[in-house]
Amino acid sequence: MEQKTGKTPVKATNTESGNNNGLKAIIGVLGILFLGAAIWGFTLFNEKKEVEATLTEEKQMVITELDDMVAKYDIAINDNNIVNKDLEDARTRISTLIDSVKTMKADVASLRWYRRELSKLKKERDQLFAENDSLRVMTNVLTATVDSTRTRLQEQTQYNDSLLVQNSELAMVVEKGASLKAARLTGTGIKVRSSGKTRDMERASGVDKIKVCFTVPENNIAQAGDRQLYVQVIDPKNNTLGENAQVSFENDLTLNYSLISKFYYDNKNLDVCEFVSGGEDFAKGRYVVNVFDGSKLLTTSSFSLK
């Protein structure tokens, strides 16, 4: 009986040893699985981080390209001498798209959509810039044409002004040259005899009239025809002899004249003599004789009676 009791513990030990080995095997497998899961999870985490970094970088690239497009639109708009609404509208759309990209959560689908939009905007930009370049060339050509036309107009205006000045000066010369002149003006006291003949007198007491003579010189550019000049004789007492009539002119001047000398002028030398009455008696002293063409004094002379 003691022998049976000694064999039983040996069998129990072998069974426990087998169980321990199985448990260890299970634990080992679980450890391997856990380690694999940890490695796989770490790999997935790293891949996710890499994808997020790539998407963020891609997002920033899209923003950078859009910013570059806005800058180019700014240059094109500022270079234009005229407002280009198409360029300004395109720039506004791009600025709005930039704000949208900045606030979006980066993912493959969104970036793919923004990339397509970016490609469309680039094509639109190329087309608009080509049209803008063509418009700028046309504008420059038109501006050059306008500047050239303006220069020619200014030159023509200056030339016309020069001609106007020359014509005005010429007209003044012609007008001045065409005016009548009077020369060799003389005044003499005379006595009229019953026969009608006259005799020059130096003594005031013997004078009946004042004889005024002058010559209208030859003038080929003066207007021929009936003409008249005003004769004025002023006595020593500053009285106007003769008719002592008054005439007014446009320049607010008035003239007291002794008589109007009327004659026909044919552009040749013409000697004219007129007789001015002095009233009852002629005073002693200095007499002044003037001849006027309108309000313009042509010549003056003087004489004295004793």
From TrEMBL:
TM spans (from-to): 25-45
Keyword Coiled coil assigned: yes
Recorded coiled-coil stretches: 111-138
Keyword entries, A-Z: Coiled coil, Membrane, Transmembrane, Transmembrane helix
Protein name from the UniProt record: Chromosome partitioning protein ParA
UniProt source species: Spongiivirga citrea
Lineage, opening ranks: Bacteria, Pseudomonadati, Bacteroidota, Flavobacteriia, Flavobacteriales
